[in-house]
Amino acid sequence: MPNDRFRRTPVVVTGVGAVSVAGLGADRLWTAVLDRRVLTGPVSRFDLSRYPTQRAGQVPDDALAALEHRVPPHGSRAARYLAAAVREALADAGLADGGQVGGGQVGGGQVGGGQVGGGQVDRGQADRGPVAAAGVVGLYVGSVMATRPTLDAGIGPAGLAVPGRLWATPARLLDPVREVVGRPGPAVLLASGCSVGNGAIAAGHRAVLAGEVDVAVCAGVEELSLEIFAMFTALRALAPDLVRPFDADRRGTMPAEGAGVLILERADRCAARGGRPRATVLACASAADAHHMTQPHPEGAALAATLQAVLDAARIEPDELDWVCAHGTGTPANDGVEARATAKVLTGRRRPPVSSVKGQLGHAAGAAAALEAVLAVCALTDDAIPGNVNLRSPDPACDGLDLVPAEGRRQPVSVVASPAYGFGGGVTTLLLGKGDRGAD
């Protein structure tokens, strides 16, 4: 059973990191979003001539080249995205410098049930390694395709393994991070659809509250793959030119890639080591509709349930929400449902301010929610709300929302809700507050 002392102690975000279509770094991502840059564009990595669009959110070539000097080598781009974002987040948290971090292992067991090393943590080893102030570090990572593109490269035309090619099983996604973190502790790889970035943050939050780990490294990661294009083509959900969340003329989404990372610690531990909280995790909640494999529940039941749950858990009134960082895929199926469910729960004296950054970044699948959580932390730090950049003709189905105009808003931001959907009806919603809400 969790220790009651941990239950009473707030959990804070002490560091963030990102690799995205904006390049390397959370600051670069935040600046690009505030500058209203639409970062989706032509894909140069593989031939998309058979698909309805040849555009996506691709990590720039100069950022890929820079990864070679920042993180351990690996055949999977996703693994390198993850390692680079983790390294940045640890440095931002003051738990490591900006150089090569660590050489040890996180966990040490066999892969099984999505968990790498889930047994007892030897706390006697906690003071070894370069992240000396961290204690026991847990790694919680979500992805949809994981190392699938690298796995595909190891399969020949006849479906047989190609000699000499890396056979990148999903667990290998975590290999470079073990070298970056260099700490003993649990390492968990989750695969629960496009809400999985939030799911990883929620898993790390639970572990910190329970006293299972001192620091949780929570991440979502994805690499562009032909499978993603094939999947969205089969679903008739690919946008031909731009992603237009909440617009009456929206026609679909665009795949994207990258990694987003949050470092979570107890507020008292952060204060004791002289750390700086960037945000407070007020609540996390998950639910599932089990309505359809790909279509959302027509009333957004799971989203409504999780929004209500996080408000109740944090004792927050709807009018106290400064921004809803929406899932907002730009697909005909998603946005109207999300708008109705959000408006239904967030009834108050004013309509909730809502925007989606997928119009600028595309839909990064397993990385999407984690990147949006990074942006939510930036909004709380910088007192700014991104706008709906490609919104021209708001869908009447979204009338219950205050759809933030393209230019965004400069205003105090104290509480942000960030929900994420996954296929199969799974939804996980985060509620984040200012860093000083975690003060004792």
Automatic annotation (TrEMBL):
Transferase in keyword set: yes
Membrane spanning residue stretches: none
Keyword Transferase belongs to the record: yes
Keywords, in A-Z order: Transferase
InterPro entries: Beta-ketoacyl_synthase, Ketoacyl_synth_C, Ketoacyl_synth_N, PKS_Beta-ketoAc_synthase_dom, Thiolase-like
Ketosynthase family 3 (KS3) domain: residues covered: 8-434
Any Pfam family hit: ketoacyl-synt
Signal sequence, start to end: none
UniProt similarity note: Belongs to the thiolase-like superfamily. Beta-ketoacyl-ACP synthases family.
Protein known as: Beta-ketoacyl-[acyl-carrier-protein] synthase family protein
Originating species: Plantactinospora siamensis
